Amino acid sequence: MGNTRICLLGVGAYLPERIMTNEEWTEHVDTSDEWITARTGIKRRRIAADGEGTVDMAVAAALCALDDAGLAPDEIDEIIVTTDTPEVYIPDTAAFVQYRLGAREIPAYALGSSGCAGFLQALDIARARCHFGVGRVLVIGVEVLSRLISWNDRNTSVLFGDAAAAFIIGQGKLGAEIIGVTAGTDGSRVDILMMEVGGSRRPFTLEEAQQGEHQHVIMNGRELFKEAVRRMSEAACRVIEQAGVTLQDIALVVPHQANLRIIQAVAKKLDMPLNKFFINVQEYGNTGSASVPLALWEARKNGLIAGGDLVLLTSFGAGFHWAAALLRF
Ligand code: UT7
């Protein structure tokens, strides 16, 4: 890919105002604050307001990232949106975002349904596009998971939250350098996290819709847990090895925020102290493809990243997909 320096020009995020506590979930399903806290570390999550949609949130995060980069919407050359909760099925959310943002008639496309790994997969593509000569790429991860998932299923409902976050990347001398990105897929594990009803395999029937089947996520939590730890750790090791650095050189790890216990297990597997991991799952739950950029945005906002720091991002998602990235601030 040559010596072109691709860097992070801006980071932004958007969080819906409404905070929903674990206690509030007990009004909907048979659960408790104790169970959710002990098994996941989650205490609260944000829930999009009625009438607030995927595009509203994506555009708000994009404007925040543009502001951070000191850029106007017409200075963006390409847009990639990653989401499992699109505004509508057709067309993709990227088309809505391009127009609402006031961007030029640039390429805009979406990556969908790769779960929480979507954002770093998109970053991988965006980085390649910049090496190819595209000036600046806006990458947005956005989820309104509170509307996708059944509020009657305690196995999944309590885990998720709504959020959007965005990166702007491009060639340049300023901003954190994106040193490397790695991604992979093991499609033999599609069974461990799936929404089966609603696609071409099992189109909606009235009966199923009435029973809420279209919101039913099939999830093998224990298998997911094991795969998550294994693949996030492996991806982290691969990206640092490719960059010729070691885990000891890493100042901060920003992992996908699915479950505190998964993050603790990754820290153990990598033999790294937990205080090198940024954790905000307690505040927002699992926000899918928004999770990693939201965590990086908050870590930087909280002054946890200094110039020269090596920061490692790592994630996993339904598929089974995984991806990791290494940045030098
Ligand atoms: O981005 C991908 C999204 N998904 C994930 O990242 C999930 C990864 N997996 C996990 O985070 C964990 O496996 C869970 C948090 C989902 C579950 O924790 P666990 O320690 O693996 O739980 P378990 O399987 O040992 O226990 C589940 C038990 C079941 O009861 P029985 O069958 O043992 O009597 C569930 O019915 O916990 C019960 N349960 C709940 N109880 C109270 C499941 N959800 C709840 C709940 N409140 N919300």
Note the topology:
Elements: E1 6-14, E2 18-21, H1 22-25, H2 33-40, E3 44-47, H3 54-69, E4 78-83, H4 93-101, E5 108-112, H5 118-132, E6 136-144, H6 145-148, E7 162-171, E8 176-185, E9 193-194, H7 206-210, E10 218-219, H8 221-243, E11 252-255, H9 260-270, H10 281-284, H11 291-301, E12 310-317, E13 321-328
Parallel strand pairs: 4-5, 4-6, 11-12
Antiparallel strand pairs: 1-7, 1-8, 2-3, 6-7, 8-13, 9-10, 12-13
Helix pairs in contact: 3-4, 8-9
Bound molecules: oxa(dethia)-CoA.
Structure description:
The protein is α+β, with helices and mostly antiparallel strands. It has 2 domains: 6-175, Peroxisomal Thiolase, Chain A, domain 1; 179-328, Peroxisomal Thiolase, Chain A, domain 1, CATH 3.40.47.10. The chain is built from 11 helices and 13 strands. The strands form 3 sheets. The chain has a 9-stranded mixed β-sheet, sandwiched between helices. It starts with 5 loop residues before the first strand and ends with a strand. Bound molecules: oxa(dethia)-CoA. Oxa(dethia)-CoA binds next to helix 2 and helix 8. Residues 31, 35-36, 39-40, 115-116, 154-155, 158-159, 193, 221-222, 224-225, 228, 258-259, 286, 317 line the site of oxa(dethia)-CoA.
Short key terms for the protein model shown above:
alpha+beta, Peroxisomal Thiolase, Chain A, domain 1, two-stranded antiparallel ribbon, single chain, 329 residues, 2 domains, nine-stranded mixed beta sheet, binds oxa(dethia)-CoA, globular, 33% helix, 11 helices
